[in-house]
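Work Package 3 (structural annotation) set out to generate three-dimensional models for the target panel prioritized at the project kickoff. During this period the team completed the workflow that converts sequence records into discrete structure tokens, so that structures can be stored uniformly alongside our sequence database. As a representative example, we reproduce one entry of 193 residues exactly as it appears in the project archive.
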Amino acid sequence: HALKACCMPSEKQHAHTFDCNWEEFVQAYQSRFDTLPPYQDKNEKFPDVIKCEFRDFEVVDGIVQFKADKQGRINAPSFVKHWMGTDRVCFNVTLTIDRANRFMRVVTMNVTFAESGLRLNEDLRYFANPDNPSQTRLTCTAELDLMYIPGVSKSIESFVLDVYAEKTIQARKFEQPFIAMWKGNKSLPPRTW
């Protein structure tokens, strides 16, 4: 692959523990989709999200899998938007829920940036904490491949990783009200997908 040969790969990892069991977390995670466009016109917590559409829903041997196409605004300096040729970003998301093994995986591929010489993919893994079943663990790996451009690549890499880190923090904060709604609440009807 020609792009790979001239890219500067980077990887960012982080882990997080949620103070709720895995089943509660999955319910909370799923319920947040109801707040994203086109289901609501605008989400104040994620104003950059333009739309999120689901497709290819299937259940095989009790494992749920579906895909989502997400589109958002790029909140970046004008030189980054110019280099990318757009002010919008599109993601393909594959979500897998394995209730029997208390495991959920969300793989996000950035399809917009790939055409401009930048690839940013994310792999989120949520699982029941083996040391404390009343908690859910998250491990996240983000991979960034950036085409080398003398004098510019380091600035773009730094900017992209800083924005990614900021969005990751926002996502953890965004999830908290949904977790609070589902934690210990037996009156809400559970989602089965």
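The CA atoms of residues 4 and 55 lie 30 Å apart.
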